UniProtKB/TrEMBL annotation:
PANTHER family: HTH-TYPE TRANSCRIPTIONAL DUAL REGULATOR CECR, HTH-TYPE TRANSCRIPTIONAL REGULATOR RUTR. It comes from Limnohabitans curvus. GO terms for molecular function: DNA-binding transcription factor activity; transcription cis-regulatory region binding. Signal peptide: none annotated. InterPro entries: Homeodomain-like_sf, HTH-type_TetR-like_transc_reg, HTH_TetR, TetR_C_Proteobacteria. This is HTH tetR-type domain-containing protein. Residues 1-55 form the HTH tetR-type domain. The keyword DNA-binding applies. It holds the Pfam family TetR_N. The keyword Cytoplasm does not apply. Residues 18-37 bind DNA.
């Protein structure tokens, strides 16, 4: 059901996709669909959340033994590549277009994406226990996502060519790592991480 709904939302947009159309294309009964997703907003929220999670599931693990700056470089480039995937860009656009009608959905999509990116950065930095990670490391991961990932993904959502953004990604990540090194003045930037 969610795969069919994903295809329909991407092909037709939010406004022209109906629950009845999803039920028809998924070859399921309307009552089954409505029991699981009482509204189109509920279905769209499930589709967006699944799409975001799928992107994070497909991100490569960061190689071990790299210094902190190198790990951030690898993590940043991987996140940007994931965020520039056409499906991610399309869902950012659809969600933004429906933000006035479904503000909770837009905020949820943003939080799931942002929190997932921060989680990936923390994993890449070698945080052993993400629930008990050093608050400075969490702040570093949040700022990293805000400084590196969000600007490029927002540019893609507004139509900047993804190929151009990919060409700029490595330098953007490098610049952000340098800025964050100064901001956080961490003593172990040169220490390899596992």
């Amino acid at each position: 059901m969610l795969q069919v709904a994903t295809s329909l939302f991407l092909d037709r947009g939010f406004g022209r996709t109906t629950l009845d159309l999803v039920a028809q294309h998924a070859e399921v009964g309307k009552s089954s669909l409505y029991a699981r997703y009482p509204s189109k907003g509920d279905l769209f929220a499930a589709v967006v959340t699944r799409s975001i999670q799928t992107m994070f599931d497909h991100l490569a693990p960061v190689p071990e033994g790299l210094k902190l700056g190198q790990r951030l470089q690898a993590v940043g480039e991987a996140l940007i590549e994931g965020m520039l995937h056409p499906r991610c860009v399309a869902f950012m656009r659809i969600t933004a277009a429906e933000a006035d009608n479904f503000p909770d959905l837009a905020l949820t999509a943003y939080r799931v994406s942002f929190d997932g990116a921060v989680f990936y950065v923390l994993k890449g930095l070698g945080a052993a226990n993400l629930n008990a990670a050093d608050p400075r490391l969490i702040t570093l991961a949040q700022r990293f996502v805000e400084v590196v990932v969000q600007p490029l993904s927002f540019q893609a959502a507004f139509g900047v060519d993804a190929a151009l953004l990919r060409l700029r990604a490595s330098q953007c990540v490098h610049d952000a790592v340098e800025l964050l090194q100064e901001r956080f003045a961490m003593t172990n930037w040169e220490q390899p991480r596992t």
